[in-house]
Amino acid sequence: MWHEDLLAPPGAIVGTPEYASMPPWGWPRRMAAAAWAALQFMRTGFALTPAQIHRARLRICQSCEHWSGSTCRICGCHQVVKLHLPFERCPIGKWEAVRTRRPLRQRAGESLIG
Predict the structure, then answer these.
(1) Are 94 and 50 in contact (CB under 8 A)?
(2) Read out DSSP for 64-99?
(3) Which of these, 8, 64, 95, 105, could form a disulfide with 12 (CB 3.0-4.6 Å)?
(4) Backbone dihedral angles phi then psi of residue 71, each to the nearest 5 degrees
(5) Quick one: which of 28, 22, 29, 86 has its CA closest to 57?
(6) What percent of the chain has pLDDT over 90?
(7) Residues 6+ positions from 104 with CB-CB distance below 8 Å
(8) Which residues pair with 71 in a beta bridge?
(9) Tell me: the pLDDT tens digits for 51-86?
(10) Cα torsion at 87, 49, 45, 33 (round to 10°)?
(11) Domain residue spans in the chain?
(12) pTM exceeds cut of 0.70
């Protein structure tokens, strides 16, 4: 398809076996995921993952074969940020999202920002 080149990681050639084995994230998809995460972060009232859960997630990621030291090779997310967000989850199911206790409640006509 015409948009596959936009979604391909840098240096990938669409249609090759190497392309087929690469993770399905290019810069447009990563930017969309980051924008979604920012929106969710605002919607949860800027809630962060509790420290105990964050440490558990970090240990799991550090022991994973897809860990690159700061980035997940499966989803392409920067784990330093992702592990702090309660609504995020591991793309291969090693850890799940957690419920937050501070949902943002917006009244009709009230701005989300200031």
Answers:
(1) no
(2) STTB-SSBBTTT--BHHHHTT-TT---TTSSS----
(3) 8
(4) -130, 145
(5) 86
(6) 32
(7) 42, 43, 44, 45, 112
(8) 78
(9) 999 999 999 999 999 888 888 888 878 888 899 999
(10) -40
(11) 25-103
(12) no
